[in-house]
Amino acid sequence: EFKAPPDPRTVSPPQPPALYIGALFPMSGGWPGGQACLPAAQMAMDLVNNRTDILPDYELELIHYDSMCDPGEATKLLYDLLYTEPIKIVLMPGCSSVSTLVAEAARMWNLIVLSYGSSSPALSNRQRFPTFFRTHPSATLHNPTRVQLFQKWKWTKIATIQQTTEVFTSTLDDLEDRVAEAGIEISVRQSFLTDPAVAVKNLKRQDARIIVGLFYETEARKVFCEVYKEKLYGKKYVWFLIGWYADNWFKINDPSINCTVEQMTEAVEGHVTTEIVMLNPETVRGASNLTSQEFLAQLMSKLGGKNPEETGGFQEAPLAYDAVWALALALNKTVGPLKAKGHRLEDFNYNNRAITAEIYRAMNTSSFEGVSGHVVFDAQGSRMAWTLIEQLQGGSYKKIGYYDSTKGNLSWYGNDKWIGSGPPADQTVVIEEFRYLSQKLFVSVSVFAGLGILLGIVCLTFNIYNSNVRYIQNSQPYLNNMTAVGCMMALAAVFPLGIDGLHVHRRQFPVVCQFRLWLLGLGFSLAYGSMFTKIWWVHTVFTKKDDKKDKRKHLEPWKLYATVGVLLSIDILSLMIWQLVDPLHITVEKFTREAPKGDLDVLIQPLLEHCSSEKMNTWLGVVYGYKGLLLLLGIFLAYETKSISTEKINDHRAVGMAIYNVAVLCMITAPVTMILSSQQDASFAFASLAIVFSVYITLVVLFVPKMRRLITRGEWQSDAQETMKTGSSTNNNDEEKSRQLERENKELQKIIQEVSRKLSLFHRSLYSKYHLYLNICQEGSMIRRCRHFQKYDK
Which residue ranges does UniProt annotate as crossing the membrane (predicted)? Predict the structure, then answer.
């Protein structure tokens, strides 16, 4: 039967094959984001299907359910989506908990998952979620912005406080990795579950200054109430908070805190927020040919005049809109490559990995301008977006800059004005300040030391010039010369004792340490060693028995010089071993930090330079022990010889007085300077004045009496012969008297012995007569005399 052809005007064109998207929009529950995100997605779907340059041979269709932001409900709905026709080519969940469930299961069905409302950092795990993408940036997107700010404001030390939830823990773990790469230290990390009081106190105690806070809005009010109580706010502190709190979050009446609105406003002033930009701030037409403001106008129209603040997901609606566009552009990009391989999008099934791989590659390389900004995904499938930086100034938030994570650029509004005088330091600024010796004290003591050296030169010159005078010869002038030289060396040690980092560079300071040690050590050995040798010889000669004393009265000078040489050699050898085994070097002692006057966020760290070695106490113990024994022995010898008079060393009593002086001062000074080593002025004053006084007393006691004698008695070298005779006769008076007394003593001892012998003989004779009379009386003879004898005997 013949039929007429149909009228082309009445025949509808064939419908293009549909590509189905399975979506879960939470219309209720913890986050009812579907209330605004679903209309936005439908707007994008209509625009895509009306475009002839995007998927012209296909039509996108949205199959959606209400997940209620509940993983249990989402499990049931996912089962329905997967096992109910038609086949879905992509899944679009919202809510982090639901997206986690869907993304982990989708790999088993070779499905791409594209989320519009999931911020959990855990979803950035490619091993666990290999086919997951999201247009909602990860919560960790705040971290690159924070790191950029830390680096810009030259902060290298931060602190963190977080609420113990998975999203904040993951965000903080990511922040730790990023700051470690940037060379920034997280010095304090505190967490709390419900009560932040202890955590805030720990931040205060550990001097936290730059603090990153990760917690929900209700906990933020609790935190800043404690911040107010602990005074952890002001120009010394910077708090970094999440920017998605309500603008007046700190003014909301909260019965869980006991702080007033005024106190809360004072505590939060100056804090910085980072907020992900979800609406393009620029007037640009992107892939949808709409500006962000045109999109908002159409969305408001589609919502039917609902209040945006009462519509769940209104802030995230641009992300849902751009999610549909990202999917459409990616599918459009796969048409050509699939056709070349003999595949079509409508051939997709849950076992077709080739089509899934092609869609994955297209999604991974997405890059276009959307109403939420530039859309691009990182290696983990997370959206890279702008982050807005604001600061609370005067009770309201002011934009100070933004960070473009797609380009890594940090830009600023205006002149990058910071509230107050500028960003504070990330910690209390510690200024190292070296303690130096008082220059007035150093100059004063140096003058005395210089005058003492001049006095030593005068004494040495006097002793050398008059060395042929008999009186000077009898004082062992060479030993006195050694004493004078040793005294001058000890005085010269005062100058390096007062030299510190104010006068020389630290590299040269060990040389100064060596001068101190060698001048003082060798000066002591020469000065005290020569005096000790004199007193030792006097004691050795005049405290022996008579038969040995006469043999040793002849003084051999070389033995005295050899004794001084031995003492000097011991010192040189010990100092050389010390410097070779454990050389002196500079050490820096730190003291308790001090706060300067005024409202300055600084502390002064006092430092003091010392000459030291690794085993300083051991070496000092050896040296002090050896010198201490010499001093004690010198005191003993001086005491033992105080009444002895000898012609060979006529000044040994003066030497004894000098030894007393040196020994007492040294024994007091050595331990006191060790105790006062941390007080540079007191230590130097005590040590240097002890040196000056002991040297002055030694020179005056040893040399001034000689000068006075030679001047007052005219015993000068110009009249050598007469001087020698006069000096000899005068000097021998005491010796002659001593010998005369000794001879008289011996004669008296002989007389006493003779008288004792005669008395003994007389006593024996008298005793014999007594017994004779006694016998006669007993025999009865001589009665008369016996009576008289008995009467006498009674």
Answer: 441-466, 478-497, 517-537, 558-581, 618-639, 659-678, 684-704
